[in-house]
């Protein structure tokens, strides 16, 4: 099988984002809990963050002119892939420490893998991005691996 | 905890029927400007979807909630692995399900199979969740 994945593309594996440091606020927890339909008072009151609160906390905030016409922020960690249509992806998360209002958290994202598989209607490219989130003590709070499929 | 932790125990399901307002608030909380979630003419006429598309990670959150509501303060979710298998839309009724696949009373570790089912019963977001029960709850 001829590979879609060149040496040049593979050279991007290991690429890392600049650390992103954000503060957790009660208000942001409350907004997220309401929007997800949470029924648990500790989250609705913002006393502690529900699982997946890191998703809104670390979503990219970029200037309007850096959004694509469909309103998506372009992920600068990723190289240009020979396939572009994104299919379903997967998430794998480990929760190591609870998150509370007032916590400062720092996330670093790393492109950890690019590989190819044969799909039913042609080749597929998979890539994986790992995110590590630490608190100001340096303790690991959460680890997440995202797998995305392009066709 | 009801049911008590044991392999095979089925947790109470939860139905979700998100409307446009909830979808907008969810994406606003993320700062996600993807048009398919709020711009109906764009979603239907340009991208060819039948309706506004639900955000994938919102279904991921519901996988946590169905376990977390059972768990209460008896323990913590330690891990999840899931994938989004198909698009879902405003107007859909989605059901979050969970069943315990393993329980270790010694360590308090519980493993569950979780899923979001659409109205046809297709698993649009299947996965597994890991939980650790606090000592008093084992």
Task: Name a few traits of the molecule.
heterodimer; A: 151 residues; alpha+beta; Thiol Ester Dehydrase, Chain A; 4 helices; elongated; B: 138 residues; 25% helix; 28% strand
Your description of this structure?
- The complex is a heterodimer of chains A (151) and B (138).
- Chain A is an alpha+beta fold.
- Chain A has helices at residues 7-10, 26-35, 41-44, 54-57; strands at 20-23, 86-95, 104-119, 122-135, 140-150.
- Chain A contains four helices and five strands.
- With 138 residues, chain B is of the alpha+beta class.
- Chain B is built from three helices and five strands.
- Chain B has a five-stranded antiparallel sheet, with helices on one face.
- Chain B is elongated.
- The mean pLDDT of chain B is 96.
- At the A-B interface, helix 2 and strand 2 of A face helix 1, helix 3 and strand 2 of B.
- Strand 2 of chain A pairs antiparallel with strand 2 (75-83) of chain B, so a sheet runs across the interface.
Strand content of chain B: 25-35%
Q: Structural class, judged by helices and strands of chain B?
A: alpha+beta
User: Order of strands side by side in the largest beta sheet of chain B?
Assistant: 1-3-4-5-2
Q: Biggest sheet of chain B: strands, sense, closure?
A: 5 strands, antiparallel
The assigned CATH architecture of chain A is Roll
Count up the domains of chain A: 1
Using the coordinates shown, work out and report the CATH topology of the domain at 56-137 in chain B: Thiol Ester Dehydrase, Chain A
Might you state the CATH topology name of chain A? Thiol Ester Dehydrase, Chain A
- Helix-strand sequence of chain A: HEHHHEEEE
């Amino acid at each position: 099988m001829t590979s879609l994945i060149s040496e040049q593309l593979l050279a991007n594996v290991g690429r890392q984002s600049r650390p992103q440091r954000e503060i957790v606020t009660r208000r942001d927890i409350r907004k997220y809990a309401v929007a997800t339909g949470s029924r648990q008072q500790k989250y609705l009151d913002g006393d502690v963050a529900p699982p997946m609160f890191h998703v809104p906390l670390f979503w990219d905030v970029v200037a309007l002119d850096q959004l694509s016409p469909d309103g998506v922020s372009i992920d600068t960690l990723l190289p240009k892939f020979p396939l572009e249509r994104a299919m379903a992806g997967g998430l794998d998360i480990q929760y190591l420490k609870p998150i509370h209002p007032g916590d400062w958290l720092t996330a670093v994202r790393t492109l950890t893998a690019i590989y190819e598989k044969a799909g039913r209607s042609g080749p597929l490219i998979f890539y994986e991005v790992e995110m590590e989130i630490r608190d100001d003590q340096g303790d690991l709070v959460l680890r997440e691996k995202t797998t995305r499929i392009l066709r | 905890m009801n049911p008590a932790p044991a392999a095979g125990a089925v947790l109470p399901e939860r139905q979700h029927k998100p409307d446009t307002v909830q979808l907008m608030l969810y994406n606003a909380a993320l700062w996600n400007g993807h048009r398919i979630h709020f711009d109906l003419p764009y979603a239907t006429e340009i991208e060819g979807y039948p309706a506004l598309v639900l955000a994938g990670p919102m279904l991921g959150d519901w996988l946590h909630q169905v376990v977390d509501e059972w768990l209460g303060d008896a323990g913590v979710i330690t891990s999840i692995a899931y994938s989004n298998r198909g698009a879902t839309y405003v107007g859909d009724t989605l059901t979050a399900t969970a069943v315990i696949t393993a329980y270790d009373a010694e360590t308090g570790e519980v493993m569950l199979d979780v899923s979001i089912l659409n109205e046809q019963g297709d698993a649009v977001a299947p996965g597994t969740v890991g939980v650790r029960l606090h000592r008093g709850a084992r």
